[in-house]
Specification:
Elements (H helix, E strand, L loop, with lengths): L1 H27 L2 E5 L3 H11 L8 E3 L6 E5 L7 E8 L5 E9 L2 E2 L3 E2 L2 H24 L1
């Protein structure tokens, strides 16, 4: 029993740090989604992804993207930047990444997980909008 407790005391913190490193890496990496929609339609879909109950948690801010949203939090939170660029053959390319981060202990990013969840939600919305458009 004592060895199990010692194992847990060592493994649990390592697992938590490992998960945070993974979340941090995913948040700052650029996620790209191509959409057949016009840039104005894509911008509206993205703004809707930050609306509703989430509007309390996110605020518009300055940054390098076309749309920049900052998560309200300790030390200013994390900023998610989204670039919306028209493609030459029609449609739009959307790039999403964490542009403004708060770092703890040199490697942990504040609210990296929420950026990852928003990136996935936006990608799903653009994909769901596409699927809904083809079935209608």
């Amino acid at each position: 029993m004592e060895s199990l407790l010692c194992f847990a005391v060592v493994v649990v913190p390592i697992a938590i740090i490992g998960w945070q490193l993974y979340e941090t890496r995913q948040a700052v990496a650029t996620t790209t989604v191509d959409s057949p929609y016009e840039p104005a339609q894509v911008a509206q879909i993205i703004r809707d992804a930050f609306g509703g109950p989430r509007a309390v948690l996110w605020t518009t801010t300055g940054g390098p993207g076309t749309i920049n949203m900052r998560r309200r939090g300790v030390r200013g939170g994390i900023t998610m930047s989204i670039d919306i660029e028209p493609l030459s053959g029609g449609g739009t390319r959307v790039d999403m990444w964490a542009s403004g981060t708060v770092v703890y202990f040199g490697f942990l990013v504040n609210f990296a997980g929420v950026v990852n969840r928003r990136k996935r939600a936006i990608a799903r919305r653009l994909t769901a909008e596409l699927a809904a458009g083809h079935t209608a």
